[in-house]
Amino acid sequence: MTPSTTRLRLVPMRPRDPQEPGRTASSLELFFDLVFVVAVSVAAAQLHHALSEKHIAEGLLSYGMVFFAIWWAWMNFTWFATSFATDDWLYRVLTIVQMSGVLVLAAGIEPVFTDRDFTVVVFGYIVMRVAMIAQWLRASHTAGESRQATLRYAAGIAIVQVLWLTTLVMSEKIVVVAWFVFVLAELSVPVVAERRWTTPWHPHHITERYGLFTLILLGESLLASANAIFDAVHEHEHLGELIALSVLMLVVTAALWWIYFWPPHHTAITSFARSIRYGYVHYFVFAAAGAFSAGIEVEIDSITHHTELSELAASYTVTIPIAIFVLGIWWIALRDNADRVVNIVVPVGAVLVLLDPLIPVPFALTAVFMALIVVTLVLRPPVERSA
Hints:
The chain starts with 26 loop residues before the first helix and ends in an 8-residue tail after the last helix. The chain is mostly helical. The radius of gyration is 22 Å and the shape is globular. It is built from 13 helices and no strands. It has helices spanning 27-52, 56-84, 89-107, 109-115, 119-140, 147-166, 172-193, 203-234, 239-260, 272-303, 311-334, 340-355, 364-379. The protein folds into two domains: 27-193, no CATH class; 203-379, I/LWEQ domain (Up-down Bundle).
């Protein structure tokens, strides 16, 4: 046993250095992300089925609700890990417990879409959050100046979990209203916890972690593009359309990656206020990326005549997520370090993508608009501005 460990072979969970050089994602964090691949994939698949069957409002509502559970659990662990991560057995076990909660949540996603039954999702979510309470309480013993913040996190999360349990005895209509109220309660916990006592989050580490989660979501879009090729092998009648869709969506996905990872992105977090903006707006960025993959699948259904949606509506299931993704990431990570040209081209390009379905040759122009945004980012260097 080394002097830095206890008799239980635990490492004191001291605050990490927010300026620690060379800070990168750990293998445990990457392992943690893997279970979210499952949850995101199930949520996107259910959204695809709901949209194709023309259950648009119900599908979007269900997707928004379950995606919040996925995103918020991932985000809370990410911000905790950037401040207090250790690598002893207890930290690993509690992280794996959270992973088990993600898998339970993923198993409950389909009943939410089909029967508006939140039982399994709520149970899986609470498993993740209770493990997170344990992490915050453990950190509080050695958090130093951040002790009050850690205790507020633990207390706030615990209170909101009790609220979530009440949804199990609510009627369907009341659950939807309660969901919005309890989401606001969840979102308020970090604001209250860090109002006077802050945790030592590492800005570059946070942006890297968000980037890695974005790659997971864009991977779903690549899979959806590949599915167009797979279907083309069997749907000879629509071979050309499916291959064209696959190529165009690959171009769009690559453009989304390029836009997201514009070099100044890693400097997007410079204050607590900006960290809140960055973290919370990413819900829409992440949800749009997941919905984009579902939209590609819907468009495949449209080409092969396996959906009840019109061609125009099917096109919008692709273009709306693209536009939301671009506008969201421009707002939180690009505009502060971009010149006037970039700050015109990017949002205007997103709006043009929204108009693309109204033009006789949809998607081809979307790919062109996205490529033009990328070219602009390449030609216009970032502008250094004060925080």
